Amino acid sequence: MKAYIGLDVGSLTTKLVALDEYGDAFFTRYIRNRGGPIEAVQQGFRELEKEQKEDMTICGVGTTGSGRHLAAIMAGADIIKNEITAHAVAASHVSPDARTVIDIGGQDSKIIHLKDGVAVGFNMNTVCAAGTGSFLDHQAERLGIPIEEFGEYALQSNNAVRISGRCGVFAESDLIHKQQMGYNREDLIAGLCMALARNYVTNVSRSKKLEPVILFQGGVAANRGIKRALESLLSLELMVPENFKVMGAYGAALLARREKKGAEEQSNYRGAQLISNFDCYPNSFICEDCSNSCEINELYIDDDLVSRWGSRCAKWEDLHHSSSKSKEEKTLS
Asked: Which CATH homologous superfamily contains domain 2-89+248-275?
C-alpha cells in the first residue's frame, strides 16, 4: 500500500494527514502545540506509527504552514509549499467547483480565489489578532467556556451584543464593558462571532464579491457561530469540508503525491519511529557579516547540526560554515 504524508505546522496547532494512492485520507490528527511544535510533530508521528499497517510504504512527504521548514527537516520532506498553495490544492480536490476558500486559523486568516482549481489571487490578515482563532481562544478562556462549545453558545443567542472587532485590544475592552453591563454569555459570544466575521469581511475579503462554491476551512470552521455570522454578512452559503481542520496538511500530502508519483527515487522520509524518538532542538543567531543582519535558524538532531535557513545569501547553506559565536554563546543568546 502506497501512502503520502502531509504536515502543517502552524502557530497554535500541528496537523498531520496520511493519504492512500487515490488521495483519500485514512489518518488525520489535529494537535495543539502548547508552545512546543517539535513535541507536537513527534506526537503525531507516534500516533501514526501505531496505526500504520505493515504493508504500507510512505512514498512522499510534504510540509506547509509557518513551521514548514522545521517540519521538513524533522520528517525528511520531499516538497515544501506555502499555505496558499496547499489549501488551494486541497479545496480543489474535495470540491472541484470551488471558487473561493475562506480559511481562518490561529495566527492569520486568508481568502483564496480559485479558477479551474488554481489559486489566482489571495488576501491575508496577519496584523491584528481580532480576526483570528487565537483571539477566540483567549476570550473563551477568559469567559471560562471551552472553545469547542463557543459556537453552540452563539447559536442560543437572540440578541447579539455589538462589539468592536477592528482591534483585538479594543474588542476585549468592549467585551469586558458589555459583560459588566449584565449581558448574558450567549449574547456576548454571538457578538464576538459577529465582530470576527465583520473583521474578516472588511480586512480580508475587503468587501469583494465572493464567488460560490465557497469552502470554509481552518480550525475556526468548527465554530458554528462564526459560520452563521459570515453567512449572514455575505448572504451566501458556506460549505465546510469533512477534513476542514487539516486541509493545509491534506494539500501538502496531495502535493507530495503529485511530486513523487511515478518517481524512481525513494522518499526522503525518515520514518515514524525515528522522528518520534530523536532529540531535536532549534537554535538561532544574528549574522553580522553584512548590514542585512539576517536571523539564521538552525536545527540540531541528536546534537548534530542538520540544517540552517534564514539568510538572504547562500553563505550559511554550508553546515560546516562557522559563525563568529560559539555554539554555547549562540544558545545563551
From this structure: ATPase, nucleotide binding domain (3.30.420.40)
